[in-house]
Amino acid sequence: MITDNVKKILSELPQSVELVAAAKARTIDEVQQAVSAGVKIIGENYVQEAQIAYVVIGISAKWHFIGSLQRNKAKKAALIFDMIETVDSFETASELDKHCAKINKVIPILIEINSAKEAQKSGVLPENAEALIRKISTLGNVKVSGLMTMGPVSGDPENSRPYFMETKKIFDSIKSLNVPNVEMKHLSMGMSNSYKIALQEGANIVRIGTGIFGERKNEK
Ligand SMILES: *Cc1c(COP(=O)(O)O)cnc(C)c1O
Predict the structure, then answer these.
(1) Who contacts 44 (Cβ-Cβ below 8 Å, separation ≥6)?
(2) What is the distance in A from the centroid of ligand 1 to the CA of 100?
(3) pLDDT digits (tens, 9 = 90+) for 40-63
(4) Cα–Cα 20 to 30 A to 29, which of 6, 12, 120, 216?
(5) pTM score
(6) For residue range 96-116, what is the model confidence (pLDDT) as tens digits?
(7) 26, 66, 110: residue to mutate for ligand 1 pocket, most atoms within 8 A of CB
(8) From the CA of 180, how far away is ligand 1's center (Å)?
């Protein structure tokens, strides 16, 4: 089933769009099946889960962090991940920068936008994105490479459209500023129920869990 789901999704995605398999609460075997079926990027919400899966799957896939990064996990995250999609503060960027400097790595990061402006949500508010990106751009071992957003979590996926549009607008406007050491290349928007809408609004990374692995049973 996982194999069929991956093949179907990959066959429908435009060439220019990257699929991230959101692996939270899945077994290593399930994640391995997705990789065997053609998934090239695994999205992890928890550093510890990623560490365990990394031992088995390793560099046969790329690893994106898509969860909320705690400070004390930045060192391990710097080692494993090829991209951190959820940076929303200078402190987090700076912590990653410090650990990446020690291992001679420049890690691509996306800035998470709280496009729905939900108080409990992670992400930087749209109006603060430019200032944050300018500040992070001074760090040598992280490279801002685009934006990520979640949009509203529940309800009709069509409700997400305005937030995807808003995030694309920020993406284009930051791109036009040509900030040194900032590349607006990746726009990560859309999950299982909303990725088709996200694609229409300019996403080039989609993060899909349920659509690949089925409903989550042991939601954390
Ligand atoms: C779980 C998760 C996804 C995937 O969600 P599904 O609805 O299962 O496709 C995407 N992005 C993030 C940040 C997630 O935590």
Answers:
(1) 23, 24, 50, 53, 63, 64, 65, 66, 67, 81
(2) 26
(3) 999 999 999 999 999 999 999 999
(4) 12
(5) 0.96
(6) 999 999 999 999 999 999 998
(7) 66
(8) 31
- DSSP letter, residue 104: T
Please count the CA atoms within 13 angstroms of the CA of 183 that sit on its side-chain side.
Answer: 8
Name residues whose C-beta falls within 8 Å of residue 207's C-beta, 6 or more positions apart in sequence.
Answer: 20, 22, 43, 66, 85, 188, 190, 191, 195
CB atoms within 10 A of CB 140: 11
Share of the chain above pLDDT 90, in %: 91
Separation of CA 27 and ligand 1 centre (Å) = 16
User: How many angstroms separate the CA atoms of 103 and 79, rounded?
Assistant: 8
The domain over range 2-213 is classified in CATH as 3.40.720.10: no
Contact 88, 124 (CB under 8 A): yes
